[in-house]
Amino acid sequence: TSLPEMPAGLPEPVLPPNAEVVLTKRYLRKGSQGEVLETPRQLYWRVAAAIASEEAKYVDSSYSVEELALHFYDLMITYRFLPNSPTLMNAGTDLGQLAACFVLPVGDSMEEIFDAIKYAALIHKSGGGTGFSFSRLRPQKSRVGSTGGIASGPISFLRIFNTATEQVKQGGTRRGANMGILRVDHPDILEFIRAKEREGDLNNFNLSVGLTEVFMQAVEKDEEYELVAPHTNQVKERLKAREVFGLLVQKAWESGDPGIIFLDRINRDNPTPGQGEIESTNPCGEQPLLPYEACNLGSINLSRYIQNSGKDDILWDELKRDIHLAVRFLDNVIDASRYPLDKITETVQKNRKIGLGVMGWADMLFRLNIPYNSQEALNLAEKVMHFIQFEAQSASKTLAEERGPFPGFAESTFAEHKQGPFRNATATTIAPTGTLSILAGCSSGVEPLFALSFVRQVMDGERLLEANPWFEKALHAAQCFSPKLMEEVASKGTIHHLDYLPETIRKVFVTAHDIQPTWHLKMQAAFQKFTDNAVSKTVNLPHEATREDIWQIYWMAYEMGCKGVTVYRDGCKSNQVLCTGDGG
Ligand code: ADP
After folding, report:
1. Is residue 217 part of a domain?
2. Are the CB atoms for 211 and 241 separated by under 8 Å?
3. Which residue among 41, 49, 319, 544 is least crowded, i.e. fewest CB within 10 A of its CB?
4. Cα 510 from Cα 506, distance rounded (Å)
5. Is residue 282 flagged as an active site residue?
């Protein structure tokens, strides 16, 4: 199929600060000598045209390809919506792999283990991230039938996956990201919990322990639980649940790793249980998937849906229109994408999972003068996400009428409950938007800001002071802006201590460390309530936080219906890895 030509007079994207550097380094197409082959305008048109051109085969569509390409282009260059990085990098190119999230199975044989390593390498090369469960591998020191030898166990294989990842660079710029999961009832669980004890170990992996309902109840009742060898189903040992939970808390306190995911809860929401159990998520935890499944994500920039004046300031009609366009976009991405393995193509096309989410949430709150750590913010989070989930599902229903439901629909829980039909087995996910938020010039995902202003060192030694635009605007409006103040804010990041600033400004412009950990968690739970998949969120803790604080956070996450939780205690590690703007 030929792509629609770029129309004359197409508006030029206006790039937010830093977007140009990131685009040039990572997204613009390059020639064999590394020379840049396209402009940002050409990039966004390439993506819009490639994704819109999938529309041609759907004869019942009310859009022409040309018209849809213009809508998609407009969505992206106004930064109201951006698809995940691989779509921006690869749409309309020979590579054509457009999804960010993959889960691969790891079977209990040499062949299956090394197949998984090979498939992961192919996925990393194409810009995607991979998640694996190691729970099916026999524990270390088990017998190996064919050789009479002794198995080395999940953690030693994890190291091989990690080394392989280290060597495969994505387009020469970033390393791949992985999630490694082990069930809490696997006999090697204690070693797994300690696997990232030493700084730098397994640094291409995020680790999460897969907690079960049985285990959580054993913690609650202070009982023992069973460790079961997966290859024989034999009980190997019994451990005190609270001791294991305590070790988990201790390690998370020391280094942030491992996180936890609630496996039974994730499977309770599995829309296609007939196709098997969900055993892992993607690298940052927001996307549970079946083995060999992939998912493409996209994010709506909430900071763009505010009127300049008036009280109820949210532009709901515009938001609704864009959600419907974004769902169409993401569904077309599934058709446009070429996956590195036939089995993945098959699974993806069967369930057609997409993950529409949000970014710019902290900016939206700034613009509405609502403190992140307030009941009002939680109420608004639920209202906004409920709206997005409802409209995304309604858009998926419209697509099912035009294009047919996802092929796995008849056996899905939706069909069982007489819901739908839907085009997509899931519609909503909240991604970290580590790089997308830089391209869009907004706050990332549903996280609060890290600093209201900071100093960026540029190459020739020059210092550039960067401030959040809404903060700067509010200071001007209150007539307290001064370059000296901005320097002061940059040195600490926060204005919490500046008691000469107006009370309202200090209340509204809070940063990650001004916010009590429980508010972080409540915000995650508010968004999770209306998200089909999961929510990427870090609960930031001050350096002084205790192990008991983390124990409480984990327990609250369980009680509040989160699908998992990741904590990070300030200063517990000298550098943070994975999923930062630079991709690690
Ligand atoms: P982006 O902003 O680049 O689109 P996000 O920060 O929202 O990406 O991350 C979304 C998902 O993309 C992650 O959960 C992971 O699956 C994938 N991803 C992120 N960074 C990397 C990386 N360095 N390598 C591979 N996959 C990645």
Report:
1. yes
2. no
3. 544
4. 7
5. yes
Residue 445 scores a pLDDT above 70: yes
Inter-CA distances, 543 with 80, 246, 260, 448, 555, Å:
36, 19, 21, 18, 20
Question: And the tokens for 96?
Answer: 């054509």
Angle formed by the axes of helices 517-528 and 375-403, to 10°? 30
How far is 83 from 330, CA to CA, in rounded Å? Answer: 8
**Cα(441)–Cα(433) distance, rounded to whole angstroms?**
11
CA-based angle 384:370:492, to the nearest 5? 120
Catalytic residue among 54, 279, 286, 447: 286
**CB-defined site of ligand 1, < 6 Å:** 84-85, 100-101, 128-129, 174, 176-177, 282-284, 286, 431-436, 579, 583-584
213: domain CATH number is 3.20.70.20
Number of domains in the chain: 1
Task: Exactly one of 90, 204, 282, 301 is catalytic; name it.
Answer: 282
pLDDT at 167: 87
The pLDDT > 70 percentage for the chain reads 96
pLDDT for 290 beyond 70: yes
CA of 475 to the centre of ligand 1 (A): 34
Q: Is residue 93 part of a domain?
A: no
In a domain, 226, yes or no: yes
- Whether 295 sits among the annotated catalytic residues: the reply is no
Domain span at 126: 101-281
363 CA to centre of ligand 1 in angstroms: 21
Q: Count CA atoms closer than 13 A to 464's CA, side-chain side.
A: 8
CB 532 within 8 A of CB 429: yes
Q: Is residue 535 part of a domain?
A: no
Tell me, yes or no, if 286 is annotated catalytic: yes
Q: Tokens standing for 204? A: 């291409």
